[in-house]
Design a protein that fits this description.
alpha/beta, globular, binds succinic acid
Length: about 350
Amino acid sequence: MKVYITTAILTIVLLLSYIGYSQQFWQNSTLPVDEEQQGLNKQIVINFSHVVAEDTPKGQAAIKFAELLEQKSNGRIHVVIYPNGMLYNDNNELKALQNNDVQMIAPTFSKMTKTIPSWEVLDLPYLFHTDEEVENVLNGRIGEQLLNQLNHVNIKGLAFWNNGFKQMISEEKPLVRLEDFKNIKVRAMPSKVLQTQFELLGAKSVNTSFDELYTEIENHEIDAQENTLSNIYSKGFYKVQNNITLTNHGLLGYSVLMNEDFWNSLPQKLQEDVLSAMKEATEWNFQMAKEMNSNDLEKLKKQDHIKINTLSVAEQNKWKLKFKPLYSLYKNHVGATFLKEIQTELNH
Ligand code: SIN
């Protein structure tokens, strides 16, 4: 009986000890601190969504910005980039930014003209003649004023980036003479100036988002489009369209945007890091854009099936004359201020 009682008591003591140990009753109630894990909690993540390939002026500048910002902020900010429209496309990326579902996007300024009509000025054909002119305007005083237009829509404008000049690319026939545009379907980004530009030529302008463009060309829903050589090469448009005309008629550039509440939530030091990383990435982008477009032209020239056409000076003058009404259209639609400022700056 004695043995039985002793065994029972021992079993109860052992059982209680085990339960106590497994529930950590004997341990200090403060858990050990893991500095690294605590650091992770403090890390701020910027999700940056865009629609083009990584191997483009915008794709590369986004990567450069991410690297610079991580360095400058000593790892406090981590930028995760989502290229190729893998998260959002032309039609929903602005909403995603405004909802803070992503913290950064970089749409073409043409795609922002519904929200900021004055930016249509940048779509006017033959407004800029050289990359240097583009850089002076977008990176200077006028660029700053244009970015400030975003204050009305609670978006923080960080910079303008460049892609380069647009060229025409078509499948059936080359687009050189103005008559070549008669009754064809040309894709235009959602900008009044761009859509009217093709209508002035007698074409039908079709608004297609960038992620659907390849398929629509393949399905013959679109005959032609304007784009930069870097987009034509990186997105593989040259596989489904074989006539390129080097027109350099318009600019394709980007506004780099951040959710304003997110921006305001950053401590001042981190805001300074963002601006400093953006300044360096922007300078780098302008340089890269020139290089990538000229490298991609060489790659396109090597494709046997691609025919590269150029405009004679006489032909180009006809294009310029045809597009003249767009300048009045812009002035009537939005006002003359920015156009005058740019023309004065460029001495045109
Ligand atoms: C882009 O470069 O972001 C896309 C341009 C386009 O929609 O053609």
